[in-house]
Structure formats: C-alpha cells, structure tokens
Amino acid sequence: MTSPEEHFREVAAAHDRVFWLDGGGGRAWSSRRSMIGWLDDDDVSLTFDALHHEVTRHAGGSSEVVGSDIFDVLEAEIAAGPADAQWVGYFGYACRTDLPARPAAGVPDAVWMRTTNLRTFDHEVDAVPGGAGKEAEPWWNWQAGARHERNQGGPASFPEPTVAPRDYEVAFAEVQEALRAGLTYELNLTYREAVESGVGPVAAYLRLRELNPAPYAGYLQHRGTHLLSSSPERYALVDRHRVLETKPIKGTTPRGSTPQEDERLRTHLATDPKFRAENLMITDLLRNDVGMVCEAGSVEVPALMEVESYASVHQLVSTVRGRLRDDLTTVAALRALFPAGSMTGAPKLQTMLVTDDVEETPRGVYAGAFGWIAADGRADLGVVIRSLVATPADAGWRYELGTGGGITVQSDCGEEYAETRWKAERLLRVLAD
User: Of residues 34 and 128, which shows the higher confidence score?
Assistant: First the structure.
C-alpha cells in the first residue's frame, strides 16, 4: 500500500496545484487523518492580490479577475458550487483590506482551491515520532525522533537573553513607548527572514513534519508558491452544529534536555505571571471577537491557560467557544475574526496600527490562516506560524519565515529576541543541504 509520503511525492511532481492536510501530527483535539489532493486543469482556484484589490479565478487554462475581496468571492463560489464541495487554502495577514496591514510582494495574499481529486490516509498512533498519540511524550522517549535530535545537538534549554540586532531594538523600544502611552496592552512583534536553499519544498516539508509534528501541519502548492506549515495553533473550527472554537496560544517555552528540566520549564510556563497575563489578555480579546459572531450567552472558555507539550516547545493555550448566529455564514464569521488575535495583540485595531508602524516588512502569508472550508458550513483552519513560504530562486529555492512573540510592559528585549530565534531555528534546520 502506498504511504502518504510516497503519494505526496508523486502528486506534487505531477501537478502544479496540490495540498496535503497532514493529520500525522494530530492531537487529541485534532484529526489523525491526512487528505492529499490535487487540481486538474479545469478545476477552480482563487488567488488574491491585496495591493491591487484583485481576486483572480483560475480554471481551464485561463485566469480572470472576478472581484476585489477574497472573502466575498470565496463565499459566492461556495454558494454557487456543489453542495459537497470543499475548499483548501490560506488567507494571508493582509486579506482584510479594511484593516491596517501592508500587502507583501512576490506571493499571493490568499490561495483557495476547490478540491475534486482527494485521497485520505488514516495515521496509526505511532506514525510520526512525537505525533499522533504521543503529544505529551518528551523528546528523550522518542526513537527515530530522539536519534535525529541528538544528531542535531538536541533541544535547547530556556534561552539566555541575547543582544538583539539594532532594528529589533528600535522596534521593541517603539512598542514599549506605545504600551506606556496606552495605545496597546500587548503587541505581537514579529519579523521576517529569507534563506536560499537547494532543498526543494517537497523534501523540506517531509523533513519538517518529522522534526516538528503539529496538529496544523500541511503543505500547499499553487503555481510556484509553496506553503509548508507546522503550526500548533487553531485559528477557528466550525463543526456541523455551527459551534465555533478557537484556541489562542500565548506563552511558549522550549522542551528541556532532561525530564527534570522539562518539568521545570513546563511548570514555569504554567505559573509565570507574565505568561499568564499575556494569555489572559488575548483570551479576553478572543471572547470579544467570538461574541460578535455568536449567539448571546453561548460564548464560553472551557479551558483557560492549559499547557500543551509539542516536539520542541511547551505552549500555554486557552479555548474559546460559541454557537454561530443564524444570520452569519462560516466565511463571514472567519472574516470577522481575522486576523487571529494572538498574532495582533490587544486591542486589535489600535494594536495593528502600531504594528504597521514598527515592523519593517509586511507579514505576507505569516500570521494568516490555513486550512479547509466545506460548502456545508464546516471549517478548520490553523494560524500560519512555524511555517515556511517557498518560491523559485537562482540558487534553488527562496524560503521566507516569520517569527516573533508577544510584548508587554514587563518584557525584556534580549529575552524576547532570544525567544524569536529558537522558534525560527527548528524551521531553518530543515533547509540545510
């Protein structure tokens, strides 16, 4: 029987519009089923250029501008299409053009593909080291995973503060000024970096899913643009009963190099006042966002500040849930929540204005959302973090990644910059020739 990895290689080599929604790194709360699909020439896909406000429809070898808002066009396509249709794709950070977010050049601000050719794979519990069924196991108990880690030097302890580059120091100081002025209570300060590599996107993704299994792992390929995701964070789930759930992450520590150190770091994450304050502010923001699209009295927080353990990090996660209002479609609700509050800060609009002033480069696909939307109203999307975007380059491939973290008045510049580096390091590792 063909493995998902073998099937993925074959499909990605034969088609220019491909996806893999990868259930190999599933959690108890997420799927353990993979869906690998591709589009034929006559199949429909959409791309969005936020700079020019153009949504382009691709089908039958032709491309046509059909609108100016990706959410409106996608909703119309879903309504007009087959009742059993499912769309796979991403919204980049600048997709809501009514909000202050700079468009990025070089890749579409959104890609959505209507699926027709689809194959599913059910993952065994031990299919991926540290993945499905092993979400709480520390790295030293893995077999293949542990060997790989030792060869790479093993996971780091909590990073020591380090001297940040001048541009990060300046941005951090500007954020602190905005915090003291009351313009924001918490801001997710991020930056981008680009690396050229001879490792192709298919090989890089197979490395990434082994090294960093995650519930929102996945791959999307659309005519020269490749998204490689190993995200742990749920942006939004809408189930068949129209219950919407989001799971914001705020607070991260590395895994320890021994069981004792790992437990110390886990406890530190769960009890540290700074981490808890960051998480509470974002949870309150998400309660407000979810409350705008859900029935009055239905919004709840069934899990507040729980620690989830992944291959390389512990995360502080809350869950916010509510029942969608009858007058709202799923796409309209996703638009209203966008972008994820964990990637903006609080309050959302004012904080996005400050972010646009202090960050040197546009976020692009990073900090957006990636997943699937079905015509029957169901959907499941993750936040685009711990992810790579690849495009062809002279030396082979150009990979861009984003990294960052939440900044409050209690934050230290050196500590925050060190955190951004160990978040990025695991992604960069897969690009070594």
Answer: 34
